Amino acid sequence: MIKLIDLTKDFKTTLAVNRLSLDVAAGEIYGFIGPNGAGKTTTIRMMGGIIEPTGGKILIGGIDVSRDPVGAKKIIGFVPDRPFLYEKLTGMEFMKFIADLYRLDLRAFSRRSLELLEQFALLPWKDEIIEAYSHGMKQRLIIAAALLHDPRVMIIDEPMVGLDPEAVRMVRDILKGLASQNVTIFVSTHTLSLAEDLCDRIGVIHKGTLLAQGTVAELNLAAKTGEARLEEVFLTLVREA
Amino acid sequence: MSQTVWTLLRPRLLSARSGLKPDARGTNRARLALFGLIGSVFWGGAFAVFYRVLTYFQNVQDFGDILAMKLMSMMVVTFFTLLLFSGIINSLSHLYLSRDLSLVHSLPVSVGDAFLSRWLGSTFDSSWMVAAFSLPVFLSYGLVYQAGLAYYPIVLCAVFFLCLLASATGSLLVLLGAAVLPAGKIRTLFVILGVGLALLLVLVLRMIRPEQLVNPDSFASAVLYLNSMQALDWPWLPTTWITDTVRLALKKEWGLSLFNLALSASCFFSLMFFTRTAAGFLYFRGFSRAQTTAKRLFTPVKFHGYGWESLLNFLSRPARAFAVKEIRSFFRDSTQWPQLFLICALIVVYLYNFSVLPLDKSPMKTIYLQNVFSFLNVGLAAFVLSAIAARFVFPAVSMEGEAFWIIQSAPVSMRTFLWIKYFLYYIPLLVLSELLIIASNFLLGVTPFMMFLSTVTIFFLVPAIVGLAVGLGARYPNFKSENPALSATSFGGVLFMLLSFGLIALVIMLEAGPVYRIFMSRMHGHAFSLPQILWFILSFCLALFLCIFAVFYPMSQGEKNLLKR
Fold first, then answer.
1. Which DSSP helix (H) or strand (E) runs through A3?
2. d(CA B445, CA B360)
3. Does B348 contact A at CB distance below 8 Å?
4. Structural domain harbouring A120
5. How far apart are CA A137 and CA A167, in angstroms?
6. What is the ipTM score, two decimals?
7. CB B335 within 8 A of CB B190
8. For residues B463 and B456, what is the distance between their CA atoms, to the nearest angstrom?
């Protein structure tokens, strides 16, 4: 469902992503981990069609993001690492804005938006201006809006930042539920326990290069760390790179 | 002043220094050179105009000096008014709304020090431009009236205290306003300020009644006129002390001049004492209250369950989504309101002035003048439109701010996004410009040909100016700015103004020749020769081409830049 082929992003002063290739199957949850500045967010922003790669290809559901960005975006639900929104709109108005951009059926929108706002515990604040929302509420609103058009692929950058423990559990359960419905999830995170618990496979990126990928057991093999937890595997892989 | 205040000001000074350093792409240098050039042209222009006017006044027997001093008094009042309004807006922003205030108030500094550092920043921001452009005015007075050397330092001190007085008054008003207004309504100060500014502008301009100057019948006698000009300004106003400081220094009455300067200085120090004392009691309380979410000023009414959004149902869904978002964001942001009121006031003044133009008092033929004014009116309306576009259309892309990722990740192409933005501004600005042109032409009573020509010219200039504004706004966006509306004064904003003014001037110049020929031939009943007809066609086609080019080229450049981000 997701295919990255020799993906490269060169900012002239920094080679952020260097010939990155990977495949993610439909219904799979793929974790993307790496130290700060490793190239995670750049990769995710290229996949979401937000920045252009300087080389390589991104295929989402078989659609080349460079050739048909609009077509690819129709099947993607994108969640950035920082919850910047239109602060002067209310939560419900923002959902309607997204529904109009994705040309969703209006009757389905009414039902679905209320359902999602309730699921993300935002229903009591739906008519409040976003400016008044806390960081966590904004993050939840972004995730709710990303799910509004029933995407086939979710691309999520740091989903748990700013969320309270209850919301973390809720988001984790929602992502697992989506994967069981064959939605592909590509998630970048620093929360290694979450990656370990949630993801089917994990890719470790460092200095723009994919160091290793696979299940936690496969990563242990690659790092020669026996049956260690993901944290130790990660630190070993990065240290030795 | 305590060390803490300097420490609090240091980040600002360091940021300014970084902004002056040359960057890798040389953009900073280009920006500085452009701003330096434009500033010098304006500065030199202001000096030349005042020097010329004052030299002329000096040659007018009896009246000259009185007129020059009256002009000085008016200039000081104008500078003070500008400084006061700018001081209120800057104080509100620096003291209550800036993003870095949370950090400042979390630091172990006293409320007094925090207030003083913010006030100093606000004073600089609100004053530097007025101060810089007041200097050529006073310099020309000094040179024309051959003032002594001591005049110049005294003028500098007078301008300095004028700025401080206005800023201290503005801050005190904001402190009191923030304490009186209910929490969440502090931003309403912007709206109050906007209404006040608009009313003041209309009142002042109508009280001056400049059209009377060309109508000698309105003055009963020269003595009456002289008396009105010589009427003393109110002696309790700081502006009177500042005017007297400069006026008396000009006459080399140093003692009295310094006395007035001392009056201004003592007034400032007393005012600052009150302001700082008030800040000790009110500032932190007001700041805490300002942290509440801004309350909406009004809730739009719905008619049979339909809101105003239903009026946009004819648009495609993404276009409607953008339009609704844009309109809501705009009207819920009260910082936009003062300028909106100001524009309304300017339009009223603009049209009213056309209605009172004393064309029949002129020695030239009225029909000729009516049509000349009508033609010049096209350029004037287009310049007004450029200024509105610089303030509202150029920052439209930057207004997306950090939320621009929503557009980038949405299934809408960048081209569609930009064209939706374009039409969102094009339609209202076209309606506004055409109304302005048609109304002023009616007031002038122009010929049908001039009515047709001016409405058609503005019909093609509006899309060009909007295209230039949206395109350059996308070419030079600033998504990280705390106040994207300020991008009108950025490199891209200034470039837009220059190109827009250039375009208007070119179109007007291309049309001027043929229009004059056509108009004269109609008056005298001459026919056109073939070369003349070819010249007309070529000129109008070139003007049309320029307008079309100004729509599409900047838009494509803007799109390319946004896609590269």
1. strand A2-10
2. 12
3. no
4. 77-150
5. 10
6. 0.80
7. yes
8. 12
